[in-house]
Amino acid sequence: MRDREFVDAFEACTLPPAEFPHSAHIRLAWLYLRDAPVLEALTRFVENLRRYASSLGAAGKYHETITWAFVFLIHERMVRFPCPTFDEFAAANEDLFDRILDRYYSPETLASDLARRVFVLPDLPNYEEFR
Questions:
Q1: How confident is the model over 15-63, as pLDDT tens digits?
Q2: Residue 81 pLDDT grade (very low, low, confident, very high; cuts 50, 70, 90)
């Protein structure tokens, strides 16, 4: 699906859930970040992700810390290593697709109600060494 069609289907809540795995979340964030400053992109991503999840009857699946952390990680990577296409970005940042937050957060923190409701900073003492 082309980028514009993908974004439009997601924002209209017509994108089938099977077409929105983790990699599609990353693609959507990349597209939003490509078109807007980070805080605008974050706001748009959060609002639309919540609405999409609600449309599927899955409002409780939204997780603030995971969402914010990924948007900021993706943004950082886009600035450090610019790529003209999402496919190139994905190939250059394979770790974003493989439980990268385990490097920054303890399982207890990510499982907490607090982390689900508000953005929580990384809590692993040595997360800096994984950058």
A1: 999 999 999 999 999 999 999 999 999 999 999 999 999 999 999 999 9
A2: very high
**Is residue 126's pLDDT more than 70?**
no
Q: What is the pTM of this model?
A: 0.92
Backbone φ, ψ for residue 81 (5° rounding)? -130, 75
How many CB atoms sit inside 10 A of residue 79's CB? 10
Calpha distance 89→77 (Å, rounded) = 9
Range of the domain at 71: 3-130
Q: Report the domain count for the chain.
A: 1
CB 122 within 8 A of CB 105: yes
Q: What distance in Å separates the CA atoms of residue 14 and residue 129, rounded to the nearest whole number? A: 41
Tokens of 38: 């980070």
DSSP string, 13-60: T-S-GGG-SHHHHHHHHHHHHHHS-HHHHHHHHHHHHHHHHHHTT-GG
Q: What is the pLDDT of residue 125?
A: 80
CB atoms within 10 A of CB 97: 12
